User: Fold these one by one.
Assistant:
Number 1:
Amino acid sequence: MADAHRRTFDAVCVWKLDRFGRSLLDCLHKIEELDYCGVRFIATTQPIDTDQHNPASRLLLHVLGTAAEFEHSLILERTQAGQARYREAYDKGEVGKTVHSHSGKDLPPHRPKRIFDREKVFALRRKGLSLREIAAKMGLGLGTVTRMLEGCSKSP
């Protein structure tokens, strides 16, 4: 896409639309970006061509855009239904017996991912432990320890 912004080419040619992106919505966003950059998009096995002189292709892209919005709505609806089912199973006490979360941790809904003693991290650093040693001792990721210590210029 960086090359498209620099106009190092005039057109993107793909075999089928689904080879261009992860989802229909993703494809359409990329095609819009190419169009904004003045780069033509062509799908050779489908009647898709973003040439301004091809109204049938424009119509097809608009229909696909509507389908992408529909696909996005269905995904959102399924996600919300799954979350509601999990909350209900959790409230009934079924989670951990017959129904398990995908992570296998069976955490309560809306619970913070991880709680740890920040003061202990600072104390270990003041004792001279390396970032890796602190991460191992606290059971945290190295990135978490690094970001926390860098984010606080003055440790408490």
Number 2:
Amino acid sequence: MTTAGGERQPGAGDRDRVIVVMPAYNAALTVERTVRDIPPGVADEVILVDDASRDRTVDIARALGLTVIEHERNLGYGGNQKTCYRAALERGADIVIMLHPDYQYDSRAIPYIVGFVRLGICDLMLGSRIRTRREALEGGMPLLKYLMNRVLTLCMNVVLGQNLGDCHSGFRVYRREVLETIPVDER
């Protein structure tokens, strides 16, 4: 349901199809904890796209009841994301949540972040795993990855004129129309 101004408003019978996509590579040690923290009923489907992992990621994901898509060969992070987004859109997602299964993001926040998108306040929300240096490192983020993230985020903020905390976030929530607008296959 939309208002005269075009904003989406929740209403009787209004139900967005919410799909969580997880681009995975060797996530056997963390995928279960990540999935278990997703609040019940928040997603209609959870899809794990495995990028030719060499561990038990696929077996664990199947045991958790996730929809699993396997790449025969490693397509890299960008290729994995493309598969994730295509799969969610093909399955009729109105809201797509990309969540890395590395347990660096708080899955419990999904209903709140989705709420901003569902209400039409935002079309895209980015989560952050970096509230404090200590929390990021204690949460399992490798030191080199943390340092590179900080440098790249600083550069992106200067170029974009923004103040993002984690521009390389593995926790993103998109309204369907955003993903349909972005030429994902060209990137």
